[in-house]
């Protein structure tokens, strides 16, 4: 029987539920009373959609297993992220800069998926198969309205808000030391609304208890705090939460967040070439036709291999947006079993979840060649983010505390070291930059469509882990507390966090804290001095490749 989706009236305090062995990550969330009404409503609705729903009628085991293997439609794993303040700062150092590269939160399907989902629903709407009667009352426009295509879902607002809350607690001392202003913190997003809205949700939580100080100063009377001092009798009330400036760049020239739109060569010679999808199609040919045949027999209609893939994608949105695995996801589990049992009647997980395993591998094969190490040119796509790291980290580590801070003297602060760089983009942003850093290609093993089950199990490249919704990469930059010599390269340490957990930087050895001089060399060797414009040019472009620029090949490493 279908789960009834009940919507509740917003309240100030309630339980946020998601994941964690059927208890759905219980955690009390209290919204600050200082938030403005529209902020309160926005965040509360987001959090309610995020988890305040009845438990799925599918088993807890099924739900937890499925939700971790949905490729780039996997929900963010909030339930086991580090909590609390930063406690492991290296002795003799202080945190002086924080970088965050974040994929947008959970979104609604794009227009192509909307059409595919509607066609599938229309095809199955008259089914009488026991256990799937819910399809008759299910509605594409109710749960995935066309008007919301590609927009951030309420659960996406909650994703970034919750991540921002953890950052606020983790970096409390850092935020106390460096209060917000646009010369201290850069917020940047792609031009897409789902990315800028994600930046806003994150910032709302990051500065939730830090309203703007106004012009009163620390010694202002209590009655004056929270107001703008004026010579007139009327005092203006300050915003209840810190407003931020969000910087965006048009899609066609955004070389950091919306990368593919800025690279004609990638669009023509990588994304636009059938050979890039060869390995995915090879793998799908081994299981999708048989699955389609089985589904056709069960439902008594013609279901194609493409329809089966559509079911997997729709399952991903059901889980990520609605925490729901008892609807479309059930079509990919063995039919005719007790869907509410903990174990089912199968020998093991591999047999019960084989369709999810297969579709996850197929997704990995697509992303491996489209955005990952399967095409050498993809490494070039992340080089501008690498260049930005070198420039901004060098700047903050070279900064002298006794140097006056005069933004008006350097074209609006462009050469002033920001202490925070928060950038919000897309799945492609995360995977391209991970490829640039070589994070998931350490063994050098090539992912193809004809490996053994054991080889697939050992694969490094897993899109469900690399780029779920709200995936993020953060760099903590630490500077010695003692004054450095003004000659030579600046000294410092850098730590990488992937989805909020420490991650070794390839080439930095076994220490999570990498010496900046070593990491800088790694970035330079991997092409930090890249010529993005030249390498992305085509015969139709105005850019020409200089004789000293070597651009990686756009041919897949396996053809």
Automatic annotation (TrEMBL):
Q: Which Pfam families match?
A: His_Phos_2 (PF00328)
Reaction it catalyzes: 1D-myo-inositol hexakisphosphate + H2O = 1D-myo-inositol 1,2,4,5,6-pentakisphosphate + phosphate; (2R)-2,3-bisphosphoglycerate + H2O = (2R)-2-phosphoglycerate + phosphate; 1D-myo-inositol 1,2,4,5,6-pentakisphosphate + H2O = 1D-myo-inositol 1,2,5,6-tetrakisphosphate + phosphate; 1D-myo-inositol 1,2,5,6-tetrakisphosphate + H2O = 1D-myo-inositol 1,2,6-trisphosphate + phosphate
Which parts of the sequence are annotated with region: Disordered?
209-235
Q: Which InterPro entries match?
A: Acid_Pase_AS, His_Pase_clade-2, His_PPase_superfam
Q: What EC numbers are recorded for this enzyme?
A: 3.1.3.62, 3.1.3.80
- Its main subcellular localisation, reduced to a broad class, is membrane
The family assignment reads: Belongs to the histidine acid phosphatase family. MINPP1 subfamily.
What name goes with this protein? Answer: Multiple inositol polyphosphate phosphatase 1
| Organism name | Lobosporangium transversale
